[in-house]
Amino acid sequence: MDRETREFAESHFRGLQGRLPSKVSPTPDRVDFIEKPDSFSYTDFFKSYLLPNVPCVFSSAFTEHWGCRKRWVTPSGKPDFDHLLQNYGDVVVPVANCGVQEYNSNPKEHMPLKDYISYWKEFIRGDYSSPRGCLYLKDWHLCRYSSAEDLFTLPVYFSSDWLNEYWDTLDVDDYRFIYMGPAGTCWSVNICGRKKWLFFPPGQEEALRDSHGGLPYDVTAPEFLESHLHPVLEVTQEAGEMVFVPSGWHHQVHNLEDTISINHNWINGCNLANTWRFLQQELCAVQQEVSEWRDTMPDWHHHCQVIMKSCSGINFEEFYHFLKVIAERRLPLVKKIGPGEVRCSEDSGLGPQHAIFDISRIAEVLASVVVNPDFQRVDTSKFLPQPEDLLQQLQEALATTDPL
Length: 404
Description:
With 404 residues, this protein is of the alpha+beta class. It is 38% helix and 15% strand. It contains 14 helices and twelve strands. Strand 1 (32-34), helix 2 and strand 2 (56-58) form a beta-alpha-beta unit. Helix 11 (316-335) runs antiparallel to helix 12 and helix 11 runs parallel beside helix 14. The chain is globular, with a radius of gyration of 22 Å.
């Protein structure tokens, strides 16, 4: 990120005046296709797609040198089962049954990859049918056990990835997933195969909700196709292509062929406010669900945070620690910089201008966090630094940077 791009981004957020980025940008009538890596920079992606929060598709030219595209796929473009069995056959993987619905999701089981591939071959021989139903390998954290560099090269466009930066720092988890499955199953890159994506811009999903506020299991069911929604955006993703899925866009994915894909969930400065709003909504939903025990359950607010962590994987306490880890990784870089020292051109990587942008986004969201009544009920006595002190550090660091 260069200085002009940071100025563009700061102007964008000032213009939002507290509104969510995902609710403001005009809804596109199509999904752009980015063809040539040499003529598409990080700044181009940041300004045209990441900041305005709209989807796009990158051509297979962006991933043609990836190791997994060369080793996991046969010359005919099919999954190379022999290679996968030889290298990962005994690894235990999570598998979802797409033919069974439980609480608007699919039940999961765990099995060795060799057993799943045996099922997959049987499914293909049975003309894509099996008494066991349609099983889909989903959320396999292969990067925990194998170097990501052996599989793929992280595109520079997605280098500002706070979620995986946070978990890599803690050395606990990651949000990099491998998905495999036969035709008919449910940033995503197709290593092989084809997928159909249906995108609903932020806000349109409200028309899909049932009387309990739940979203449908399948948006292609007749009752939804006949509803008076704006036209959904449809994309067919070919082998090697990479789809950018923006924050807050409800989407549904369908495998058109036998498919292997790599998927990343991520958070950064552009969608941090969306994330904070989502967490507030999740807590509100939990509080409503257990509201009848509010006056009788000791430490009811704490229990709501525990339930939220169980359901969403994160609560307000961990969100603060997430902000703290990213902030503490940016502050040393910014503190070394004086006014007028960051005018160089930076198109890739997390250089000084990007660090300043990140800190400004954390400071704005943290200012909202510390005054939130539910966060104020969280026991922060052992937090180091205290949230108010971290906010002050961020504000002081920003005050020393080159003003826009």
